[in-house]
Fold this sequence. Notes:
heterodimer; A: alpha+beta; Phosphorylase Kinase, domain 1; Transferase(Phosphotransferase), domain 1; five-stranded antiparallel beta sheet; three-stranded antiparallel beta sheet; 15 helices; about 15% strand; globular; B: Cyclin A, domain 1; Cyclin A, domain 1; 17 helices; about 70% helix
Amino acid sequence: MGAIDSRRSAGGGYTSKVRVRDRYHIVGFISSGTYGRVYKAVGKNGQKGEFAIKKFKPDKEGESIQYTGLSQSAIREMALCTELSHANVVKLEEIILEDKCIFMVFEYTEHDLLQIIHHHTQPQRHAIPAVMVRSILFQLLNGLLYLHTNWVLHRDLKPANILVTSSGAIRIGDLGLARLFYKPLNSLFSGDKVVVTIWYRAPELLLGSRHYTPAVDMWAVGCIFAELLSLRPIFKGEEAKMDSKKTVPFQRNQMMKIVEILGLPRKETWPGLVSMPEYSQLQSLVLHRQPSHFHRGSSLEGWFQSCMKNGGYSASSNTGTPGTDGFDLLSRMLEYDPTKRITAQEALEHPYFANGGPISANCFDGVEGKYPHRRVTQDDNDIRTGSLPGTKRSGLPDDSLMGRVSKRLKE
Amino acid sequence: MAANYWASTQRRHWLFSREKLADVRERLRERDKAAHSQFPLPDSRLLNIYFNQQLIKLGKRMSTRQQAIATAQVYLKRYYIKNEVRQTNPYLVLTTAFYLACKMEECPQHIRFVVGEARGLWPEFITPDVAKLGECEFALISEMNSQLIVHHPYRTLSELQTELTLSSDEVALAWSVINDHYLTDLPLLYSPHVIAIMAIIIAVVFKPAHSGSFSSGSSQPSLSSSLREGGQNMLATLSDKLAAGAPPKIQKLINWLAESEVDIKGVIDCTQELISLYEVWEQYSEKHCKELIGRMVKSKNLDK
């Protein structure tokens, strides 16, 4: 179908007024996901700068690409990114709808936290300097506070989604799972059964909570904080896959990883625990393992101390140290009870930031050494390629109601 | 900002003065004079009543929430200030607005299901091809510059409910007044707060003697006459009520209005707009709208 050359027709016929290739030159391919692919581009025709273009792939029906309706996550990301504006949230330049595809044009960011953490494990492990961790965390919380005060839950915070510019500014990226939480029409659970990549998923989500809150994002920030210090995911569980009936399984292994470090959650310190849908699963978890393993309390402090030792974090070293304030903040982020978990606002006022001098808006300030540039490959730099192999975004199925509705239609 | 109206795209890009709105529409008309004389359509408010009834029919079959219908109505308004209605198949546009609004308001419906339901209602105007709706979705999003988050007066109403100690009847009446304002240009002219306050004043001050249930649909029949009597000069009515020893609730509302920095002139203007809506409503004929739109779509082949 020659959509580009056909004139704008009646009845909703659509031809883009702006064309991606007129405005951007594609330099290479960055990454792909269930949604589509991300390309690096430079501006053309007077448009200056570098950009990351996220292309949402349309569904294929048979051989030709058809309009099949945009996914809800694409709609959310487009609407939210258009509305939001903050120094620590990824900046959207424009959205182009062309050739049955959506192209979201973002500012280009040279790094992300996943890549930075990875760099610190090569060729051997060397800790991320404490000042840098502090600046990253402060900027991340600042962006998150902005999202939360605007009633936006991110719901997929993880190192890969925290972008870093070449001048050391943190930008929260990938709002594909983000949504507004002001008086939702339906409980948040009913919309998306599974949110947040498993390693960063808060305990209340693992226990099946229906009405979750911004606290789920704060748990993820706690996990990211821990990972910046130890260079490994703190709770690296294995995900139980959905069964054929599409029921959401209890994530036993992930829950165990948390329990191993934080001890069992107890109803004395988390009163809401007993009303969690998966509470019985949690109890069975206790019965099936050696009880002695569970009855000790939290060993987070032990985890932290060995992390300090392994990373060479100390006041006298070049690496510096997050200190006891850093530990206190971490433990408040990894608080079981979501109603007691520290908020973004409180975290920004925590002694970890208040004490210990100024915080640079450039997380690379005073840090020696360079980070490698983002990998950009040449194997696919034709942004208009129709067929796209997507890597599966683990645990994050597209949240359309397709399964349910198509079943209803068949009945 | 997503949840902050003052920084929102709605306030920055979709709020117009009456003059600006008239100007935009006049330019649309100028561009297509022939179609205008060949295919006369009813008053835009009557057309809106018709579109709204169709949206409600569509929504009922899928048990959708009022807020999604309201968002769909706003999308229609935005689309039709940039596109002449006579160049479109309104049945396709309103089905698409509904489909998109459901996703945005977090009560998504599958595209096949929406097309199936729409075909059940308007078989002559909706083809079974879902790609048509998908294509129209692109047009809608593009014309709205992806600015899809809509702020509604319902939120202000529920926030003020406790503060102004509104009864459930009053809230229900105010709610239905808000439903009705989507039939006018008010969503393009005033902020949701001003609309909500107008609805509350109408509910409290002009509440009809025997209030029935307003929880769904319009308040047109019951409000029309009481508004016409007292609403033309709202300030006079208010001061009459005060002089007559206003009930504590009205007193409280008046005090609250005085203290808040609400645009009172705007509120009055909104009330007038609603009164004239209820007047125009009496000429409404579903059959007439259906015929005119049907003839236009068919003779211009807009459904192809």
